[in-house]
Design a protein that fits this description.
291 residues, alpha/beta, TIM Barrel, 12 helices, 18% strand, globular
């Protein structure tokens, strides 16, 4: 038996099985204990792999471990749900060196931290950004992908990010902040989080805007997960913060990756998964760690 939070499931009545819905702030603190550590003053973080992909026009990627929400459509592998079992700890210098090696090999000028929530290990992230900034003329872009929950609780992080991702400075950093919900019930169904936490990513948007950080917002508008009503609510809230933010929204449609199919089936979303189980989904399920 474990007290760790894996992924959402439903009971015979269609209700979420405890510990869901969850508190993302508490999960932030617990996940930090598992994926962040400091050794001799060096902030380390867990990663599973480093590679190059074609998105963003070609980008070197550090695949980090650990997230503080539990989206049912998440494409990330089981390292999200079992962070204690996956990955190795790397220093900022090691991560940076691996990203630069991939950039050189693939002739890329862009890099990012992906796979999980980069802001969980704040000092580690900012140390990488400092290394990028010192060598910024080798980069066109360094992307920081986030769900905004850490930022909503730590507004000083926005001020730190401004040093490396400024709307008006000589920087190459850029934040991509995902908004997952605008209606409480739908937010919970998508993220596994209690509805009272729905407003936190919008607070993070405000902090980024006020700190003059270079960023844009991504919104899932796939109608399987976000109704037209909810989309319009999200867009209106962004416009209320600043119309420019709404005008630059990245609209997301979701691909059902194998791990996502397992998670979606666990909450009864056979409208997305279908009744049959593909070989890829079966293989992902077979690789799920056992408690």
């Amino acid at each position: 038996m474990t007290d760790e939070i894996r992924f959402a499931t439903i009971d015979l009545d269609g209700g979420l099985v405890p510990p869901f819905p969850i508190n993302p702030i508490q999960l932030t603190n617990r996940t930090r204990e598992l994926v962040c550590k400091n050794v001799d003053g060096i902030p380390l973080r867990k990663y599973t792999s480093f590679y190059g992909v074609g998105v963003y026009g070609g980008i070197a990627t550090a695949y980090s471990v650990g997230c503080n929400i539990r989206c049912v459509f998440c494409w990330v592998d089981w390292s999200r749900d079992w962070p204690e079992r996956y990955g190795q700890f790397y220093s900022p210098e090691e991560v940076y060196s691996k990203l630069r090696a991939i950039m050189a090999e693939r002739n890329f000028r862009r890099a990012r931290i992906s796979g999980a929530e980069p802001t969980l290990c704040t000092d580690h992230l900012c140390s990488i950004l400092e290394l990028v900034h010192r060598d910024r003329y080798a980069f066109d872009l360094f992307v920081i992908e986030t769900n905004g929950f850490v930022l909503s609780q730590e507004p000083e992080l926005a001020e730190r990010l401004f040093q490396y991702a400024s709307r008006r400075g000589d920087t190459v950093g850029h934040v991509r902040l995902s908004i997952r919900g605008g209606i409480p019930e739908a937010f919970t169904a998508k993220t596994g989080c209690s509805p009272e936490f729905m407003d936190l990513p919008f607070r993070a948007v405000e902090y980024l805007w006020d700190a003059e950080v270079s960023f844009h917002v991504a919104v899932v508008i796939d109608q399987r997960f976000t109704s037209e009503e909810e989309k319009n609510i999200i867009y209106q809230r962004l416009s209320d913060i600043q119309p420019t933010i709404r005008n630059n929204v990245e609209e997301e449609y979701l691909d059902p990756y194998p791990h996502a199919l397992v998670r979606l089936r666990a909450v009864g979303r056979i409208d997305v998964t279908g009744t049959g189980i593909s070989e890829k989904e079966r293989l992902a399920a077979s690789r799920m760690p056992r408690e």
